[in-house]
Each structure stands twice: as C-alpha cells, then as structure tokens.
Amino acid sequence: MTSNVTKLHGYCAAVVLAAGAIITTGPATAQPDKLFPTKTVRVIVPFAPGSATDLVPRAVFEQVQQQVGQTFVIENRPGGGTTTGTAAVAKSDPDGYTMLVHSNGFVTTPAVQRNVPYDPVRDFAGVTPLAAVPMVLVISPEKKIKTLQDLVAYAKKNPGTLNYAAAGLGTPPHLTMERLRVAAGFTGQVVPFKGAPEALTEVLAGRVDVYFSPLPPAVQLIESGQLIPLAVSSVKRVAALPNVPTTTEAGFPNSDFDFYSSLFVPKKTPRNVVARIHELTLKGLQTPVMKERFNKLGVEPLVLTPEAFDARIAQETKIAVELAQATGLANSQ
Contact at 8 Å (CB) between 197 and 49? Predict the structure, then answer.
C-alpha cells in the first residue's frame, strides 16, 4: 500500500505542475484542415448540466462557434458513472463532428469500474486539456462542523457513519474524497450522483454530509453562506477562496488531488482534423471574454498539444490503476 500511495502522490503532483499556467509544447505536427467544420459539431459531456465539466466547454465552444460560424451543441449524457456518454463518442464516426469533454475521471473510471466499454488509449485521441478546476470540500452549516479537523474527528468518533457525495464512481470528486479519507484514516460511505448539482442539493438539504465539489457550481453557494468550505484539495490555496486552507495545510499530508477537464475525439479521427480542432480550441481559450469567464468560474486554462496530451493520457491511464489500488477501489464496482 505504501508504494501505491507514493505513486498516487506522484500522479497528483504531475497534475499540479501542469495546473498553474497555459502549457504549450510547440505546434501540432499535422497540417490543420482549414475547411473543418462545415456542419454542426456535437460535444458530448458525460455529466449533468451545471457540473464543472459542463460549464467549461459551454464557455469555450461559444467562443469557437463565433469564430467558425458553425453550431457547437453541448449534449449532456450522464449515466453509468460517466461511461454512457463516453462510450457513445468512442463508437461515433471518427470525423471530428462528435467530441467528448471529460474530467480526469476519463482515465480513473476504467480503473474503478468493471467492464467499461472503452479504453482511454485505444479508443480515443486527445485534443487538449481545457482547464484546471479547483476542488472544495463543502458542508451545510446545519451540521455544526466548521473545520476539516472537526470533520475528521467526527468521522473517527463515529466509524462508517459519515457519507459523502460523488458525481459518479471513479470520478475526481469521488477519488479526491477517497484520497483524503485514506490520508486522514477514517471510514465512510460514498453516495453517487449523476452530477454536481444533484450532489450539492443533497448536501444543502443535509441528507449527505459532505461533497468535494469542483469550484464553479459551488462558488455562489459558498459566497451566500449556504455552504461552508472546509478545505481545497490543491497543493496551494485557491485565489477565489483565499481564506480556505488546503487539505495538507489542515494537517493531512498526501491528501492533495487536482481536477481538470479535457477534450477528446475518436481514435481514428484524421490527424489534420485533430490539429484543426486544437487550433480552434486554443483560439477560443485565448479570447478576452474566455479569460474573464474563467476568472469568474475560478478556473485556469490548461493546454497541451495533441501529441503531448496523448502521451500524458497513456501515462495517467497506467497510474490510475495504482490510484484505484491505493484507495481499495480497483475494479470494485
């Protein structure tokens, strides 16, 4: 277990190194297809509307749509712990007109769930990450718990009674909480939902104790005082929540975990089309309007070339198995 946890920490550190700024590793090698797109493009998101992985592509592709004069339709297909929508893209025509936006649960879900109907490396080509998204642990004020230390003390005093929401099994909100649970040494029960809005609703109502939420859907609830932020999972504090400590600052080493959203297409998509999608997406991310929206959402742009991103996905797919083993979740669902 020690070896697995060490590798898990390395995985999180690798994500953190990428999250601080736009990353570019040179131009894509394929010559972009300047004619693409000539018709409507579908962008499938395997989460419910209002989730961070839904909000980011809506903002990005609104800008891309204005550039090219073609419609980009965001289609939410939650279900199966994100596998329903993801598998639909894997089976779609590899022409660039059906794309997938997923979180880093893209590689962790297959490591947790049995019989996932796709392989992240074999069935998909990476276009680029889109944004690094802070994660914040939230709780209702009615629970009378104001710090992460208080929460951990309660969980240890009442073994197995703490329940925590997850937007799908094996997704970053789930594994972020599992990583904290392992680091802090307490037990509890996961309660899966289709997306962040449902999970936040249950925490607000007090039916679920806590949720490690991506910041965008939670920020207004925190600002209004409807939810209390106990900690963030990143290695450094979040600009939008400067008074909220990180989980490591709160006294729990090796509990950090970062979340990011990314863009994929079916594996056999022509490389010049992949290069064109990358080119258009990067232009969309760099618009002043997009930068302002990301600031309001509390997220940062995160870009790699398709070639560099493919290499990263291949590496993280292998490491995801270690992450699942470290939390005792490997193919457990």
Answer: yes
Instruction: Find tokens 């994100």 and name the residue.
Output: 82
Burial of 150 (C-beta count, 10 Å sphere; 0-12/13-18/19+): middle
Whole-number Å distance between alpha carbons of 250 and 272: 47
Token pair of 199 as six digits: 């999970």
pLDDT tens-digit readout, 245-285: 999 999 999 898 878 899 999 999 999 999 999 999 999 99
pLDDT at 16 over 60: no
Q: What is this structure's pTM?
A: 0.78
From residue 313, give the alpha-carbon distance in Å to each of 123, 234, 282, 291, 324: 12, 20, 19, 26, 16
Residue with tokens 């879900």: 109
95's CB contacts (< 8 A; 6+ apart) are 269, 270, 273
Pair 211, 200: CB distance under 8 Å: yes
Give yes or no: residues 55 and 168 share one domain: no
Q: What CATH code is carried by the domain that includes residue 42?
A: 3.40.190.150
Cα distances (Å, whole numbers) of residue 228 to 173, 204, 235: 17, 10, 20
Q: Report pLDDT digits (tens) over 108-124.
A: 888 888 889 999 999 99
CA gap 66, 71 in Å, rounded: 9
The residue type of 324 is A
Tell me, yes or no, whether 16 and 64 share the same domain. yes
Domain that holds residue 89: 2-133+259-326
- Whether residue 216 is found in the same domain as residue 81: no
Residue at 240 is within a domain: no
In order, the DSSP letters of 186-214 are ---EEEE-SSHHHHHHHHHHTSS-EEEEE
CATH number assigned to the domain comprising residue 184: 3.40.190.10
Give the angle 288-291-293 at the CA atoms, nearest 5°. 110
Burial per residue of 153-166, b for 16 or more beta-carbon CB atoms within 10 angstroms, e otherwise: ebbeeeeeebebbb
Percentages helix, strand, coil for the chain, rounded to the nearest 5? Answer: 45, 20, 40
